[in-house]
Write a structure and sequence with these properties.
It is a single chain. The protein has 342 residues and is an alpha/beta fold. Helices cover 52% and strands 13% of the residues. The chain has one domain: Glycerol-3-phosphate (1)-acyltransferase (3-Layer(aba) Sandwich). It has an eight-stranded mixed β-sheet with strand order 4-3-5-2-6-7-1-8, sandwiched between helices. It comes from Cicer arietinum. Its EC number is 2.3.1.51.
Length: 342
């Protein structure tokens, strides 16, 4: 059932901004006081702060809008998700794809350790953009002469993150639209490339650099394909705020990084081939209504109301900060703590 957007925008938006600013202040304090002494402790504490903020957005997806996420993956991939460093490459279908990625990360226990490569302007957004900056997201100016050095420096800083993390990259570089698809088709025809129907042509420079610079500590690539049922429009942030439910289908295929070529040209071609495969998968879904042959895994929403969510976020934040202060080299599992709290 849809509701006027203002019903949720005003109270929840106000709560999100106020709580987010508090989190940003705490992040700034530990950035100044803790990070120079121990980057390990800074990352452990900041993970808790980041999760406490981002869980509010997860609630909007799960409980307000009722977005249903269907995950297709083989059993080995499903069991390993959240337990290993991974580079995610995704097609970009809607303006909430990043939120769907956060839902997957939350379900697998690595929400606070999810980072992405994004355009520079995002980091200037109060609350959400600032939290991403403190969480060590990588930001690009879309000027390769500057971005290449920034990426290499950022990748070097990620090598010693204390717990498994995901790094997401939307290699198409922009959200899918019909106009952009026509431009991509014209470009493909002019270069003698396979003509896409459901994806854009990937921009491979960032992906090639990511693979080359992180091979030592990111062992796998999660090849993620997003789509929505043909009977439903693409989800948007405004539709979600109005409480309009939708379904999102996600296929995740796991590739070992050691299987990729060593040369830049080979890595770039691997990425292009992956998107040709994505295009074929989506085209098959359009014609047969069969999305994936992989196993469907249910992603249950956390069984808690908004009030229990705020209580959990506050309690988890307080207890985890105390725990990390007293025992900085021990791990407090978010998933087990959540179960114990309830």
């Amino acid at each position: 059932m849809a509701f006027p957007a203002t019903i949720v925008i005003l109270p929840v938006g106000t709560l999100f901004i106020l709580s987010g600013l508090i989190v940003n202040v705490l992040q700034a304090i530990i950035f100044v006081l803790v990070r120079p002494i121990s980057r390990y402790c800074y990352r452990r504490i900041n993970k808790v702060l980041t999760e406490s903020l981002w869980l509010e957005l997860i609630w909007l997806v799960d409980w307000w809008a009722g977005v249903k996420v269907e995950l297709y993956a083989d059993s080995e991939t499903f069991q390993l998700m959240g337990k290993e460093n991974a580079l995610l490459i995704c097609n970009h279908r809607s303006d909430i794809d990043w939120l769907i990625g956060w839902v997957l990360a939350q379900r697998t226990g690595c929400l606070g350790n999810t980072i992405a490569i994004m355009k520079k302007e995002v980091k200037y957004l109060p609350v959400i953009g600032w939290s991403m900056w403190f969480a060590e997201f990588l930001f690009l100016e879309r000027n390769w002469a500057k971005d290449e050095a920034a990426l290499k420096s950022g990748f070097k800083q990620l090598e010693h993150k204390p717990v498994p993390f995901w790094m997401a990259l939307f290699v198409e570089g922009t959200r899918f639209t019909h106009t952009k698809l026509l431009a991509a088709q014209e470009f493909a025809i002019s270069r003698g490339m396979p003509v896409p129907r459901n994806v854009l042509i990937p921009r491979t420079k960032g992906f090639v650099t990511a693979v080359k610079e992180t091979r030592k500590y990111i062992p796998v690539i999660y090849d993620c394909t997003f789509t929505v049922p043909k009977s439903e429009p693409s989800p948007t942030m405004m539709r979600m705020l109005k409480g309009i439910p939708c379904s999102v289908k996600v296929q995740v295929k796991r590739h070992k990084i050691e299987e990729l070529p060593e040369t830049e040209e080979g890595i770039a071609q691997w990425c292009k081939d992956a998107f040709v495969t994505k295009d074929a998968l989506l085209e098959k879904y359009n014609t047969t209504e069969i999305f994936s042959e992989l196993e469907l895994h249910g992603l249950r929403r956390p069984k808690t109301s908004i009030f229990l969510l705020w209580k959990f976020s506050y309690t988890h934040l307080k207890q985890s900060l105390l725990y990390q202060t007293l025992y900085p080299y021990k791990t407090l599992s978010s998933r087990s703590f959540f179960i114990q709290t309830l």
